[in-house]
């Protein structure tokens, strides 16, 4: 498929956007700040989040405003990359990654117009309570039922693990109703909503169990439309997650290179040993490949230039593996200090583990890729490479 | 703004060439010569030297138009000429006239080029090479042995790196020449490799003479000139295909599709992983091309070469595992008429054996990882025992 000419070319505004978000994170999401907020009850700083939405205006770059769409998915990916590099505490995954894209795709309407602006402004947050498997919507796994009640709906059911749900002002919930599966909005503080904060390995990315007992809900996407809305949100979520993985992996590579230049053993910098140097070279390759696939997917979905199914799976399979590997190698190359609580390596390592499991593992995405390019592959005989067989061997 | 104008210029020039020299009617030589004259051989080169002085990223614009019209791949007709000799000549030839005299026949594939760098005693440590060049009037007299020289038996010219001062430290005593492969004292012998074919040669140099006018760069500055060649070599080798699923991975997918009886879930995941890596490699190449300007390729080319070499091996290892016992059969070890790329056209088993060389030729994977570590990441080098020592005092063997 033809790609547009400006694929992979960041313009001046995107470079400026990156600088701005990086500067903001250096100031408001340095390591000490991340550690402070990951230990706090809310898990993030609502004031910092509101500044990202208000002052910087970077939470809904692919969302329409009065004048139409501003920015695009590539811009949003640049932001996700920088937030991931800084491990910024906040509902990046639930709100920027999934809820905002779902609302953008939900079509014009009173409810969307009510819910979207405060999320984009950073004054409210949202979580996405939709079952997925391998990054695809999985209606068969829905555990929430919807019934009509008065002029609206009531939802009942239980969700085991929802990222960013504990502090969310609004939950977007997929539920089975009388006409099929639809997407609903539930206020976080409504009667009948019980949220229990889960103890997570990654303290910078919270999860909650959510119990809904006749919780009042409003219909966001009806059964005819829910699949499209959810599918788009999951694709965008996969792209932004991949960009976040690139940001984290690049930060770890930078950190480890600096360490290898200055840590002395046997009278020389450890980075001068080939055993260390070669591992760092492989980390570099992993990061570069991850970056190529993440931004290819962002451009592909923004411009419609490639199949979203394949583009997101290539990105997720590559970036999950890259971040996990780079994080593990970061620990290894830092030696003992890398295993301590005081060093930041474990914060990234735990994020890498979480990110690899979100929206499908690398293995599940490889399976998706195999479904698309291997299982249905039809190759004309003329293109099958020759194999030396018994006949040739006898001829000698 | 100007990028758009440049692209239009390249496109217009390419359309004119294929209109006036229909690739399906005229000889390859005429077509490629016309491309050179129109500035389409290397679009980022100066005008008059086969270029238009525009961004190298626009090369694909020209190549695609020529290919679509039925033209051959210029690169494959003279790979060392196009990929390595041309950029080195352009940067280091003593005069524009000399550069043009070499570049026009090179571009038209009238004169094939080869590279005389590696020696039996100097592989990864190329700067330690021993072939000597001694001045004699306006000429140099060359003695030594070169190895792994592909195309030497077809080549008119060779890119020669030789030692002109053994008393200097090894990087400082080298000079770079263009050697006439037909000159007296140049003897080429085929070198048989483990696949049975002989795509490479050994070249023996016995009092071979090179005019000083065929020196590239200053006397003693040969290493710097060689780096131009090597950077371009790695970029050329690593530059992947621009089409998804094409290249070596297509072999594995085709074999997979043709052999449903051999499918297992484990092999399926392995192939999906290889396909994904090939795609990440391809996209990284695309990204590098988009950001490429008129500048020379940097050490980033080493990423591409490193990945494509290891990927090639893994892909053919997969094919062999898919074939099982059948993979242990072999077509023939007899040397074919034109052994140049016979291995890559041969049966899977032969391609499998050939791929073992991928991580050695054009810079071993170990050296490439050093380059990535030191030149891209800025890591310190290994402590060296040869630094600063005159070349002749360095132990060899």
From TrEMBL, chain A:
This is Acyl-CoA dehydrogenase. PANTHER family: ACYL-COA DEHYDROGENASE, ACYL-COA DEHYDROGENASE FADE28. Its cofactor is FAD. Residues 12-122 form the Acyl-CoA dehydrogenase/oxidase N-terminal domain. InterPro entries: Acyl-CoA_Oxase/DH_mid-dom_sf, AcylCo_DH-like_C, AcylCo_DH/oxidase_C, AcylCoA_DH/ox_N, AcylCoA_DH/ox_N_sf, AcylCoA_DH/oxidase_NM_dom_sf. It comes from Pseudonocardia asaccharolytica DSM 44247 = NBRC 16224. One of its GO terms (molecular function) is acyl-CoA dehydrogenase activity. Keywords: FAD, Flavoprotein, Oxidoreductase.
From TrEMBL, chain B:
Residues 114-207 form the Acyl-CoA oxidase/dehydrogenase middle domain. InterPro entries: Acyl-CoA_Oxase/DH_mid-dom, Acyl-CoA_Oxase/DH_mid-dom_sf, AcylCo_DH-like_C, AcylCo_DH/oxidase_C, AcylCoA_DH/ox_N, AcylCoA_DH/ox_N_sf, AcylCoA_DH/oxidase_NM_dom_sf, Mycobact_Acyl-CoA_DH. Residues 220-377 form the Acyl-CoA dehydrogenase/oxidase C-terminal domain. The keyword Transit peptide does not apply. Its cofactor is FAD. Gene3D superfamilies: Acyl-CoA dehydrogenase/oxidase, N-terminal domain, Butyryl-CoA Dehydrogenase, subunit A, domain 2, Butyryl-CoA Dehydrogenase, subunit A, domain 3. It comes from the Bacteria. The keyword Oxidoreductase applies. Pfam families: Acyl-CoA_dh_1, Acyl-CoA_dh_M, Acyl-CoA_dh_N. Residues 10-110 form the Acyl-CoA dehydrogenase/oxidase N-terminal domain. One of its GO terms (molecular function) is flavin adenine dinucleotide binding. GO terms for cellular component: plasma membrane. Keywords: FAD, Flavoprotein, Oxidoreductase. SUPFAM superfamilies: Acyl-CoA dehydrogenase C-terminal domain-like (SSF47203), Acyl-CoA dehydrogenase NM domain-like (SSF56645). This is Acyl-CoA dehydrogenase.
